[in-house]
């Protein structure tokens, strides 16, 4: 991977593999409560990183979407269902997986998991809406919806 200046950078954004995005993150002290277990709200941070880097790996730069056209474009979480199955602990290496299950109109639905050592700790279903720079709903551009759905199918058209 190279940065915008052409230099090599580590694989900080994870990788696309088999129809999903995989990102690894270490649990730090700041992520935990007094007992060394990850505080429940921190899972939202890990999930957000997974979604952001998923889009980055698909070639979507969220920092420039607001200038995509005169209407602008942004993503906003509309609804999230989480299931906390097991706790993550300090120094665990988490794998955050993200895949698109639906991308139509002004919405996309993403399935996410957080695992450690092959054991699922948390699952999330996240509905994201597409809005313009004024906060009103707008359609997901067809080419972006197609990219999301193609990746979700593992590249099988």
Describe what you observe in this structure.
The protein is an alpha+beta fold and 157 residues long. The chain is 20% helix and 36% strand. The protein has a six-stranded antiparallel β-sheet with strand order 1-2-4-5-6-3. The longest helix has 16 residues, at 42-57. The model is unreliable at 1-5 (pLDDT under 50).
Mean pLDDT: 87
Structural class: alpha+beta
- Helix and strand element order: EEHHEEEEH
By DSSP, the count of extended strands is 6
Helix content: 10-25%
Placed side by side, the strands forming the largest sheet appear as 1-2-4-5-6-3
**Low-confidence runs (pLDDT<50, min 5 residues)?**
1-5
* Strand residues, percent: 35-45%
Shape, please? globular
Radius of gyration: 16 Å
Kindly, what is the distance between the CA atoms of the first and last residues, rounded to a whole number of angstroms? 26 Å
| Major β-sheet annotation | 6 strands, antiparallel
Topology overview:
Blueprint: E1 15-17, E2 20-26, H1 42-57, H2 62-65, E3 74-84, E4 93-104, E5 107-116, E6 119-131, H3 142-152
Give short descriptive properties of this protein.
157 residues; alpha+beta; 3 helices; 36% strand; globular
């Amino acid at each position: 991977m190279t940065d915008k200046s052409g230099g090599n950078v580590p694989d900080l954004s994870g990788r696309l593999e088999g129809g999903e995005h995989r990102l690894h993150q270490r649990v730090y002290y700041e992520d935990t409560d007094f007992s060394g277990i990850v505080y429940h709200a921190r899972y939202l941070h890990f999930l957000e990183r997974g979604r952001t880097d998923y889009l980055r790996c698909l070639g979507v730069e969220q920092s420039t979407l607001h200038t995509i056209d005169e209407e602008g474009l942004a993503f906003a979480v509309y609804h999230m269902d989480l299931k906390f199955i097991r706790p993550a602990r300090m120094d665990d290496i988490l794998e955050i997986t993200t895949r698109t299950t639906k991308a139509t109109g002004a919405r996309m639905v993403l399935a996410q998991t957080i695992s450690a050592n092959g054991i699922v700790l948390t699952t999330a279903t996240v509905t994201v809406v597409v809005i313009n720079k004024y906060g009103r709903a707008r359609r997901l551009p067809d080419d972006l919806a197609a990219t999301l759905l193609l990746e979700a199918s593992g590249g099988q058209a």
